[in-house]
Structure formats: structure tokens, C-alpha cells
Amino acid sequence: MKLLILRENLKQVVGIVDRAVSNSSSLPVLRNILVIAANGTISVSATNLELAVTATLTGKITEEGSLTIPAHVFSAIVGSVSSEKIHLEKKGNSVLVKTDNYEAAIQTIHEKEFPIIPKAKNTREFIDIDGNLLRSAFDQVINAAATVSDFRQELSGVLFSFQGDSIICAATDSFRLAEKTISHAQYQTNIEKGFTVIIPAKNVQELIKILPSGTVRIHVDQNEIIFKNEEREIVSRLIEGKFPDYRNIIPTSFDFNAHVPINELLEGLKLVHVFASRLNDIKIAIADSHKTAELSSRETGLGENRYLVPIKGEGTAFEVMFNGIYFSDGLRSVAKAAKNERAFLGLNKSSRPSLIRAVEDKSLLYVLMPIRQP
């Protein structure tokens, strides 16, 4: 195989597929990327067996073929050389990388050992959606997913539920819940029957980084979900299991509700968190006047602090305690949907969940369970 490729194009593509490269020591070929030149197209792929990414680019193909090359070495070379063009040539068990003033011979693994990248079996049914919109939806819910859950894998994933007239993305770690609704007017589809799948949260984190802009076509098979356009294809495995039925825990009534300034509330949470305990607990006290909310935290042997946030609300005066990090995560997610920099805050006493959403955009909900006060 002999190729001549523009360095900037190659650098961009390698940076994209590198998100799926594995550090596996048991299967060394997963630390390589696969390059295929055939039918006038150059494709570059990587997989960790959970996520597979393929991107195509243009270049001069003198001789068709395929090869694998260690990702970390190749990425470092492509990112460091200054020449405009890069030559790639396969010779025996090595890959030659050349520019006008640089040459490297890199030992490789035969391309036949590289895993087969899954392809969509059912391409007749699809959803077409703007990549930026989908990336934003994932980004607004990902913080609520559990980092690791060996006993309940579904909590380590993001729900992707097609319901005909809407798409719902949701995540929960059982202490908080984020739900984003995408209306039918924001996508096109020929799928008539609804479906629900769970995408691993770690794969969603990569999707947020590498989903292309413009229209993205989605195909769903039994074990995979595929996101693709003309130049990029991303395949994620799915998590088996049933996502928790969370609808009943979304509160519809509140002991106190208010419109609050998001940035000022975030600033206050950041300040009072300095004195938070290992539980990251922060108390919110609603004054009798309903004009201020007092944020406070204390740590035995260290001290305590308070911060007042102006609010405009209605309900009863009371105190409630939350995990400050979770509360801040919810506000930041809502801030991405809020147009007027204010959020709706619905608080409840005792063990009932509270709710945060944008004042105008009700497509994103963030539900938060309180910490029981001693």
C-alpha cells in the first residue's frame, strides 16, 4: 500500500478515531489503528470492542491495500511533523512514514488480526438528526449517569428512547436524574415503532466529542447503535437490561418554587462548598420573605459559611440539604438550555425530590434527591 495524504487532513482524522483506541495488553492490535485504501477512498478505524470509529479522507492512492499502525506513535508523528504532505507505505512487517525531511519505519501487526467493525444490519429504518443537537442533548444528561455500577449496569448508561413523536435521552445514578426531550420537529424518521436502548455512558462521553456536525443518520440493531454521515461512522455497543422506570419520581408539586439567577447560584454553591463535609452537603434555607435563599455549609473543626441568593418565589419557608456537586451539575446542565440565565427551582421538604429546569425551555429536567438531615 502506498499513499500520499495532506498532514492536516490526516491529523484531524487520526484525532477522531483515536478516541476509540484501546490500551489493552491482552489484545495488542486494539492499540493500533486500521488504514484501508480501496476504491478510491482512504478509511481510518479504531475500536476498543465497546466503541468503534471510522473516518474517511481523501488522498493520492498509488497502491491499494491495508495496514495497522500503533496509534500513539502515529498520532505523535502526524502531530509533530511540519511538512504539508505525508507518505505512507507498507513494506513487509513495517510501515514507512515519510515527509520531505523525515522518515520512520514502524513495526506493525497484520491487519487480519484487527477486529471486524460492525455494520448496520437494518439500514432501511433510520433517524436523521442534527449532530450538534444530539451532542447537546447527550451533554445535558451525561453528568447524571453512574460512573461505575457493577450490579446495575443500566445506571452506567444513557437511555435513548424513540417514542414516535419524541426522542428522550435520560441518565440517573439513583440520586439524581436528567432527562432531555427532543421534539419530532427536530428530526426526521421512517421508523413507526418505538424502541428503547441504553448506550454506555463512557461511549456517550466520546460521542459528545466526536459526533459530526450537520445531519447524522442513526441505525439501531439488536446489540449496536450506529451514528453516521458521509465521512464518519461511530458504532457503540448497547447495555443489556431495563432502564429504571423513573416517571413517577419527577415531582409535579412543590413546597417552594422560584426563579433563580443561575450564575449567581453557581457562584454561591462554589463558595460555600469550601466548608462542605465529605458528603458534599450544602443546606438551602428559604427565608420567610421568599426573597432570599441562604446557602450554607459547615465542617466540624474547620468552620462554616453562608451565601445569600436573591430569588422570587412562593411557598413555605423551610430548609433542605443537597449534595452540592450534584446540585451544581444540574444547574450547569440547565444553563445550557436556559436563554435568560434564570432557572426554575422547585424544592420539597423531607425525602421528596426537587426539580431544576430552564424557565422557558422545559425540554430538560434535572431531578435531585435531598440528603437526610441529622
Description of the structure:
With 374 residues, the chain is α+β, with helices and mostly antiparallel strands. It folds into 3 domains: 1-111, DNA Polymerase III, subunit A, domain 2 (DNA Polymerase III, Chain A, domain 2, Roll); 125-235, DNA Polymerase III, subunit A, domain 2 (DNA Polymerase III, Chain A, domain 2); 249-366, DNA Polymerase III, Chain A, domain 2. Helix content is 17%, strand content 42%. The protein is built from 6 helices and 27 strands. The strands form 4 sheets. Strands 6-2-3-4-18-17-16-10-14 form a 9-stranded antiparallel sheet.
**CATH architecture of the largest domain, please?**
Roll
Measured as a percent range, the helix fraction is 10-25%
What would the principal axes of the Cα set say about the shape?
A: elongated
Major sheet description: 9 strands, antiparallel
Report the structural category: alpha+beta
CATH uppermost class of the largest domain:
Alpha Beta
Average per-residue pLDDT, rounded, comes to 93
- Count the DSSP helices: 6
Terminal CA distance: 69 Å
Q: Please report the total strand number as a whole number.
A: 27
Low-confidence stretches: none
Give the number of domains: 3
What strand line-up does the widest sheet have?
6-2-3-4-18-17-16-10-14
CATH fold description of the largest domain:
DNA Polymerase III, Chain A, domain 2
In CATH, the homologous superfamily of the largest domain goes by the name DNA Polymerase III, subunit A, domain 2
Cα radius of gyration in angstroms: 25 Å
What share of residues are in beta strands? Answer: 35-45%
